[in-house]
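Sample intake — G-protein coupled receptors family 3 profile domain-containing protein
Collected from: Cirrhinus molitorella
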Amino acid sequence: YALLSKDGDVTIGGLFSIHSIEILPSFEFIQKPQLLSCSSVNLRDFRMAQIMIFAIEEINRSKQLLPNVSIGYKIYDSCGSRLSSMSATMALMNGQEFASGDRCNGQSPIHAIIGETESSATVILSRTTGPFKIPVISHSATCECLSNRKDYPSFFRTIASDYHQSRALAYIVKYFGWSWVGAVNSDNDYGNNGMATFLKTAQEEGICVEYSVKFYRTEPEKLQKVVDTMKSSTTKVVVAFLSRVEMVNLLEQLSIQNITGLQVIGVEAWTTAKSLVTPNSFRVLGGSLGFAVRKINTEGFSNYVIKAFWDSAFPCSQTEWNSSQVELNCSKYKDLLVLKNYNEDVPEQRYASNVYKAVYAVAHSLHSLFKCKEPEGCKNNLTIQPQQVGQALKKVNFTLKFGDRVWFDSTGATVAQYEVVNWQQDLDGSIQFKPVGYYDASLPPEQRFVVNTEDIIWAGGQQEKPRSVCSESCPPGTRKAAQKGRPVCCYDCIPCAEGEISNQTDSNNCKQCPGEYWSNAEKNKCVLKTVEFLSFTEVMGIVLVFFSLFGVGLTVLVAILFHSNKDTPIVKANNSELSFLLLFSLTLCFLCSLTFIGRPTEWSCMLRHTAFGITFVLCISCVLGKTIVVLMAFKATLPGSDVMKWFGPAQQRLSVLAFTLIQVLICVLWLTISPPFPHKNLKYYKEKIILECSLGSTIGFSAVLGYIGLLAVLCFILAFLARKLPDNFNEAKFITFSMLIFCAVWITFIPSY
């Protein structure tokens, strides 16, 4: 039988878990089974039934909405049981008096049903009424599964689908930087579908789930396993996608086993449930964060629940009945009478406004179906079918007196709007659900989620946000390396290799520094490589300068000695002009090595190679000239020979000039076509740059060296031919020895260079 009812031109059904415990009758089959009875008042759902009647009475008094049409209601108690829920559904669809011999008239006695509270019960209700196209409007069934219009074509709800809440759960976890969480859910449609969406979104957002466990309210063994898993885990954050009843069971076990310090993230089903507020609950759930349906104050409802409801809508308010009749009819209402003068919970009833919206949505759809107009009123002689109400509900779009706009999207749901609430304790010890932010799916993505972190009290009463990570963040200079067989959030931090850097926290890869850069000691920044070249200030440079200047000094000393003895026979006989030119070229050769020291520039690179080639050719040309003079001198001593007149002093100077000019020409061609240039050599060392002179043209450099080698070989051959000529002043032996050593050095120098 309907717990609360009233007749009207049209009737709206209601299905709420006004009691939470179902008492089954005896099934001994020795007498007719008694009706199911229920106990333990569920205050929240009783308020849902009250506000449904409150809204209907408000509409019946209205002159604008359904002015001459009265709405009746039939409200059944499902007792939180599938069995009672199914029985109530059949009673709503068929009418109360239906004997076995009667025939259905094909018309439902009700035009819409408001309920149920839980998703699984609503699935049963919607599947049962679906073939008859009776619209069902739920105020709190959030399962995403109910969005399927193919399976539930006549289902609507004045609350958002869990699709949005599940994603918002992942976003809040991501927002607070928790990458390592646990998950527990109710093993029913509500919990399983919601958790599936959360896990998918968490994976997309880079959040790792250490464990995902579930249980149902009638499975104490599974509940114990869930508690053991939570106790042994390393995560400090738990996402609890639970119905209110399962959360009560879990809270009880966590309190018994003294499991505290967990940062629990909850859903609208239990986050603001007063039934969870017990003396021990704050020890476990203190600091919890969760989403809640927005709190909306419905004007006049608080006073209605303590006076008008009991006077006009409650069946047992007729005190004039005799006591036996009252006792017979009111036995099932006794536990509700206790609440007659209590309304302190009304401001906290967040779902009441959803029932209020549902009633008004049905009223607006009926208003359009009855073709109501002012001042004529409605055509109340029309017969309205439930499926017509369902079609009209898809088009409703109105604004309530407290400012909320009501409309249904393509899935039959309303827009997702949640408050983010935090379990906090006042100075007097009372537990408050303090709003600390909101989530509004109607806003642009970057504005949907807002949290005031400063207002949050964290788990254990802490002021500082807890950390929950599998592995600590990898600092700059390191990269993440996944641990084998573990989630991606569990990793080791590996230092970057030489020449690589990571300048961000938690880098997956190290970046190679550009060619002229190298990693610093911390491997978090690329710095310019050290540029090295042969400097005048380093030991090697100083040694080379010393030997160069020492060689110049010796050469100048010999030149001075020669000059002071230029008139002596030994100097004259030694071809003093070529000797001085040779000493000058040797001085240039010693000084030429100085151009190879210091920072290479464009000019110094061209100078060092050309100066080297020309000075050496000048030197060898002088030696070659001396060799020819010695050879000619002894050939001239033969009778009738006048060879010396063809190689006098003028010819000697001309030969030196000619040989040198050839080298000058080679160098000019080299510098014109492809001159040497400064080059940063990155191949010798990875961590530093060797600044050197590139040859420009290898052919040009080979021509310079080849020409020097040619003159040296020619000089060696001529000196070798004249080595045994008799004379005290025969220089050919010494020239041969010198050229032999020169050629040996030259042969080893070229490949090593």
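Post-analysis note: The chain has a mean pLDDT of 87.
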